[in-house]
Fold this protein.
Amino acid sequence: MANRINLNQTSYHGAGAIEEIANEAKAHGFKKAFVCSDPDLVKFHVTSKVTDILEKNGLAYELYSDIKPNPTIENVQHGVQAFKNSGADYLIAIGGGSSMDCAKAVGARLARPHKSLSKMEGILKIWHRLPLLIAVPTTAGTGSETTLAAVITDADTHHKYAINDFNLIPAYAVLEPSVTYGLPPQLTATTGMDALTHAIEGYITKGHCTISDMFHLEAIKLISENLRGAVQNTPEGREGMALGQYIAGMGFSNVGLGIVHSMAHGLSALYDTPHGVACAIILPTGLEYNKSVAGERYRAVGKAMGVTGIDEMNDAEATDATIAAVKQLSADVGIPANLHGILKEEDIQFLAESAFADACRPGNPRDTSVEEIVELGEIAPDDIHLPGIYVHRIVHNPSPEKRIEKRTITETKNDKAGA
């Protein structure tokens, strides 16, 4: 089967990269930018690092910051109307995954004004080119500046629409390390471990290919060498992580992930656990689980992570050393070793079923089942062997019991305007 690779049209990285935004805008003859950025980035003058450049070059823009950490359909609706009212002709997203996902969804609705977000859910449902999007990541982890994905929440049903289309890949990715300076250590660590999980899962996923392997191994190397420094806010660490997480995104966006992300998605949705924390804690468990079918690839991962003497080890030793290196990096940047006190035993069956339904699960190198995921949860529900859930349909019941009702992917098509 032929392998398909889709990447940004252009990327800029390194000191001064954001200066190129003005050059590209002028080269395209654009009249006005629609800048999407979250309120905190505006408040702390991160967004202004880009808008100041626009102003300096006499380029008009409209700032839109009505964006929640998990952007909603309403945020997108407001954004679409604001774009139309502003007279803008291109998009700039400044921030983490929330700002970029909102900008992508605004672009998708502009490209398909008569197609609701609910109808775009899934794979390759947009089919139309979006207004040109320039993405400027301010964290080093999501890789959204180069991926084909956007996730938008329906605030009424708590369903998250996962939209995947190659037209969502930003035309330009601008990796400016200076915009990540001062990022809190904890956020740096969690987003960085998310990026490492992207790279490692992407390397062992069923859909991997020679080109994605190249991206993922280099990403693992860069992240392993630079995450500790980035947490300490060193310039070298920040620059290395900006590039490493971007390269990881180039890979996994094309070939998929696996069960670690299936499980981590659910922990975040059900228990509000930070996504990067969930990934970091579950990653060693996922590697243990998959080593019977993908263990021969672990040596290359360990070598990229800088494991000493791994070439002289036998296969079993190399596998164990690689998993140990993952745990050590996680510990070094302050990620907890387990989720003690968070997982509830009564949730295990529901979580396991939902994890199995996750869009990332089919890419896992080892075929799994709900029963096996349940066993992972029952082994040590307060330790790192945890099931998870990717909530395709999740409704919080307002009753005193605060139960959660799971719905299947095919239920409840939301066709309201703008959904």
Remarks:
- The CA atoms of residues 12 and 147 lie 16 Å apart.
- Confidence is low (pLDDT under 50) at residues 379-419.
- The longest helix spans residues 210-231.
- The chain is about 45% helix and 10% strand.
